[in-house]
Design goal:
Blueprint (H helix, E strand, L loop, with lengths): L1 E7 L9 E10 L7 E10 L2 E12 L5 H12 L5
Antiparallel strand pairs: 1-2, 2-3, 3-4
Amino acid sequence: MIKITVEIIPFGFEELKRKVGIMTIVNDGTGTKKRGNYNYSMSTGGRTWRKGRVENFPKLSGSVWNLIYRVLRGVFKDGK
């Protein structure tokens, strides 16, 4: 599982930080050694905001950033 936590740190003061979002990406185990299928969820304020799936991702040649990009592209495919 990949977990991304987004925090706001006002004026750089760590003691004032607050979590504003979480993304999790989970390999569902249905792919192959070379290609993976992933479920993702994004939450804000403790509530799920978006859920989806990335299929047929090239595990050996794609980086974690490529996978995150694919998630974001799926979430914002209509530009919103």
